[in-house]
Design brief:
Number of domains of chain B: 1
Order of helices and strands of chain A: HHEHHEEEHEHEHEEH
Oligomer: heterodimer
Radius of gyration of chain A: 22 Å
Shape of chain B: elongated
Strand order of the largest sheet of chain B: 6-9-3-2-16
CATH architecture of chain B: Sandwich
Distance between the termini of chain A: 58 Å
Radius of gyration of chain B: 21 Å
Mean pLDDT of chain B: 63
Structural class of chain B: mainly beta
Structural class of chain A: alpha+beta
Number of strands of chain A: 8
Order of helices and strands of chain B: HEHEEEEEEEEHHEEEEEEE
Strand content of chain A: 15-25%
Helix content of chain B: 10-25%
Strand order of the largest sheet of chain A: 1-8-7-4-5-6-2-3
Number of strands of chain B: 16
CATH class of chain B: Mainly Beta
Number of helices of chain A: 8
CATH superfamily of chain B: Thiol:disulfide interchange protein DsbD, N-terminal domain
Largest sheet of chain A: 8 strands, mixed
Number of domains of chain A: 2
Largest interface: A-B, 52 and 42 residues
Low-confidence stretches of chain B: 1-21, 114-145, 189-223
Low-confidence stretches of chain A: 20-44, 51-65
Shape of chain A: elongated
Chain lengths: 211, 223
């Protein structure tokens, strides 16, 4: 190859490399890329999309930041009292896509987002999605609240136990609201501290509906 | 290759910052003990003053203060709190909140059977009188002969980024001595370390003593 031709070839290669790098940077910062890599952005709070279906088990076992410190066994043996005072184990939903929402009657944002869970439960319950609300509150407060509202998913209460369980699921300071999605089998695939976004959350659930 | 990441990468992100907030996202939130710092002092012989320092971007609800007295020989009155900033809450309607700082007052006297013994006491002496009256009771301090009063103070607040803290409890132990008021210890939250300091009743202009030490085993950043 002559010297001018070599220079042109090198120049073209450098340009191609720069163009590729530029495209890659653009892609990595795009919403599409963020969706694919598990990063979700929205108005408030912290979301961790721990994994999508293929990597669920590995992700649940990893300890990154506030990643859950639980095994499927811990989740499915957790028991809380329902409104009638009967113990209910989360294990009864181990074949479902389980949404655990930690809340309390003294928590305004918790109550604000509950209509979203009602809607999603209505839409997705028959497709294998089970939503449960675990209140860090007295059973009396929860019963009063339940009477005044039309929550269509199970509500449980455990004033101290709910916060402790929530902490084990990555919520270090026990703040509310806190929402966790558990795939069938017990892998935690999503956690959210703060208000959920209906569109985003429905999309997460639909992507992970059991086949 | 990028598609491959979707099934294996564990990713997390901060949400958009909230204008004017100390915590710009839920990820920047602090443990309750660092957000709601409490100090206590005797405002006068029969009043405990609690001062809450509230970090920027957080607030406390006026109606969520409560006190439990664990010392029967002392009678604790109703908490007196100033008017708060009115907030129209989407869920709770009209609520009053405190930001930056708030002082709440707690009246405290000896119980009925001890009242006669306190008569004629002056301000600081009145406290000593209360102590004297209670010295014979079960709360007598083993080492000094002084008496203690134990209180559990509960408060509850939230952050502007849209999360709420569970009710926060401060355990307050105060020692009434002969002219001296000694704060023996106070704890808050899980794993809080008790502190021990002395405050002379004749030196009430001193800064109030901290009631809520940082919780060492909590990490300041949320996941």
């Amino acid at each position: 190859m002559t010297r001018p031709k070599l220079a042109i070839a090198i120049g073209l290669t450098v340009m191609l490399l720069l163009a590729s790098a530029s495209l890659m940077v653009g892609y990595l910062t795009s919403p599409e890329s963020q969706r694919l890599s598990g990063v979700e952005r929205h108005g408030g709070g912290v979301t961790e999309v721990l994994s999508s279906a293929a990597g669920m088990q590995a992700a649940a076992q990893m300890q990154v930041g506030g990643a859950p410190d639980v095994t499927p066994g811990v989740i499915y043996t957790a028991t809380f009292k329902d409104m009638a005072g009967r113990p209910q184990s989360l294990g009864q939903w181990q074949n479902k896509l389980l949404v655990i929402n930690f809340w309390a009657t003294w928590c305004a944002p918790c109550k604000e987002e509950m209509p979203i869970f009602v809607k999603l439960h209505q839409k997705l319950a028959e497709q294998g999605v089970q939503i449960v609300g675990i209140a860090a509150d007295t059973s009396l407060n929860v019963a009063k609240f339940a009477k005044m509202t039309s929550i269509n998913y199970p509500l449980f209460s455990d004033e101290a136990g709910a916060i402790e369980f929530s902490k084990r699921l990555g919520n270090r300071f026990g703040l509310l609201p806190h929402t966790v999605v558990v795939a069938p089998g017990g892998a935690v695939i999503y956690t959210k501290l703060g208000l959920i976004s209906e569109v985003e959350f429905e999309s997460i659930l639909r992507q992970n509906i059991p086949k | 290759m990028l598609l491959g990441l979707s099934s294996t990468v564990i990713a997390k992100t901060k949400a958009t910052a909230t204008a004017g907030s100390g915590a710009t996202s839920a990820q920047d939130l602090l443990p309750a003990e660092d957000v709601f710092k409490v100090s206590a002092r005797f405002k006068d012989a029969k009043t405990i003053e609690l001062t809450y320092q509230i970090a920027d971007g957080y607030y406390l609800y006026r109606k969520r203060f409560s006190v439990a007295n664990e010392t029967p020989q002392f009678k604790v009155g109703k908490l007196v709190s100033p008017a708060g900033r009115v907030k129209q809450d989407a869920t709770f309607g009209r609520v009053e909140t405190y930001r930056k700082s708030v002082r709440v007052l707690l009246p405290i006297t000896s119980s009925d059977k001890d009242k006669g013994k306190d008569k004629g006491s002056g301000s600081a002496a009145g406290v000593a009188g209360v102590a004297g009256a209670a010295t014979a009771t079960s709360s007598t301090h083993a080492d000094t002969g002084n008496s203690t009063v134990k209180l559990k103070i509960t408060s509850q607040g939230c952050a502007d980024v849209g999360v709420c803290y569970p009710p926060l409890q401060h355990d307050l132990t105060l020692l009434f001595g002969s002219g001296d008021l000694v704060m023996l210890s106070s704890t808050s939250g899980i794993g809080a370390t008790p502190i021990a300091q002395t405050l002379s009743s004749s030196d009430r202009s001193r800064p109030a003593l901290p009631v809520s030490p940082s919780v060492a085993d909590l990490i300041k950043k949320t996941p």
